[in-house]
Amino acid sequence: MYLMNKLSIDIGGVDLPWLSNQSIANTVILILITLIGRFLLIRMIKGTGETLSDARRRWISIIQNTTILFAALGLIFIWSPQLSTFALSLTAFVIALVVATKEYILCLVGAIYRATSNPFSLGDWIEIQGLRGEVLTEGILTTKLQELGSGSSRFQFTGRILTLPNSLLLTQTVFNEEFRKYALHHKFKVTVESGIDAAQIAETVLPLLQSRDEKSDKLAEKNWQKSRKSSQMTLPSRDPNIAIETNDAGKICFIMTVFCTPQDAAEIEALVTNKILSAVTKVPE
Prior knowledge:
Blueprint: H1 2-5, E1 6-11, E2 14-20, H2 21-46, H3 54-100, H4 102-117, E3 125-128, E4 131-138, E5 142-148, E6 157-165, H5 168-171, E7 174-176, E8 184-192, H6 198-205, H7 214-231, E9 241-246, E10 252-260, H8 262-281
Helix pairs in contact: 2-3, 6-8
């Protein structure tokens, strides 16, 4: 019986009287009055003549338009309370929907930002919020990375897949390591005790700061030239370099910089580190 007296929609916890018997009845009465009145007035103007004068045609047109306007105003008057309540309920529903799907909306906006600003492309090495990897896919909601390791394995894949929400692109800085994927200025430090001939050791290990083979060296040179042209700026020299300094504890620090491929970086670092430690152990007490 309740459904016969009143049909309602509950949106966002608000009871919405969408359809009621009173409104339906008033609508039906309005339509009947409009149609009957329109029919009688037009029939009266037409009369019994077979042809219509221009004046009568004009009056018929006025009546047709007037009755349509009268019906529209009447419907607005009848349904205005329901429409206003429906508008408020619809607003509450839209707000609740936005709150519930906020993360999805931010991910969509992040995808739009990525497409318009182009901070990276498929295959690039990137770092975002401390997470590094090669871009595998660029989705509407997420971006997938093939994770790169850290420390001595920072140029090697871990085998894990990282799925990052695109909303991170709106709040976090994206570091693009596209150039470092093929060649990079690899910098590392070896710290030893004082009391050694640091200059002689540096001279010994300097020849080791280079690519392991000619093919790798040519690849590094090619990417260095490519990066220099694309950036249109002066890049650091490709020549290996060793800086010697002391830390707060008085120990000697060898800071090496070598331009090489990522595949050679870990090998060169290990080779040079072992060479320095071996040279230090040979120094007499």
